Amino acid sequence: MILRLASRTAVLVLSLLAASLIVFAVMQVVPGDPARVALGMNASEESVARLRSEFGLDRPWPVRYLDWLAGWFTLDLGRGYVSQAEIAPQLVDRFSVTLWLVGTAMLLALLLAVPVGALMALRHRSSVGVVLSAVSQLGMAVPAFLAGMLLIAVFAVRLGWLPSGGWSVPAEDPVGFLRKLALPAISLALVQAAILARYVRNAVLEVMDTDFIRTARAKGLPRWKALVRHGWRNAAVPVVTVLGLSLTSMLVGAVVIERVFVIPGVGSLLVDAVAQRDLVLVQDVVMVLVALVLVVNFLVDVLYVLIDPRIGGRA
Questions:
Q1: pLDDT for residue 74 is more than 80
Q2: How many CB atoms lie within 10 A of CB 167?
Q3: Which residues form the ABC transmembrane type-1 domain (predicted)?
Q4: What single-letter DSSP state applies at residue 86?
Q5: Which of 118, 145, 176, 230 is the most buried if burial means most Cβ atoms within 10 Å?
């Protein structure tokens, strides 16, 4: 197990380095001169050249890449080309907002998907299982932003129960924070809950057909107790894979949801940076998102070993 974790950690580090090189290279071939964008199209060539020198754009790209990489280790990411604001504090502030949104949405998705998926499996031959299966299929087809707009139309506009957007700092306004978090978190969770419920259903059906569950049932245990006592751990392995994919999907989906609900998260920061052509800020935000995806995949591998130590033994 230790050997597997060490190898996966090494793969994570190498993947992060490769991803940083790819992100940096892509930003270098994007058309447009950041200095000219910052000064405007009517700026003189002398002014553009001077600003390029201030930005360090006149240095060779390997030097700029190493400086950028070193900045991640020292948390000194410099300033945006257009806004001239420090990038690191912006990322920390926006990332904390996105974490609240994605974390709450994932928790809601799990609380909904696990019992519903298990019920779909245990009652798959009944009308309850068929109806729940049909609802989950419909939920998978609805985009998160459309779910968000429908929730706004019903609960914010028509009923007036919750605000349609905005954000409050949890420490300053806990009640306002929860009210403003509810709709975006639910809209982000619904689609992923439908997907997770389908995988939970399939995993439970597969486990319920195993010999050790049949033995437990033969000893008099009801299906629910047999599943809880003997089946959950085995059913969790394939679900964890989808859980990791759902978390990365939520990170990407948060970009759109934050715009729909006017939430100042990483997604909104990325969209604003793209609109302003602030390439160094785009580069840093994209790197954060890529790093999060890689770290999630790493944590999924760690959960594999914790859930089923035999996986580590086979590595």
A1: yes
A2: 22
A3: 95-300
A4: B
A5: 118
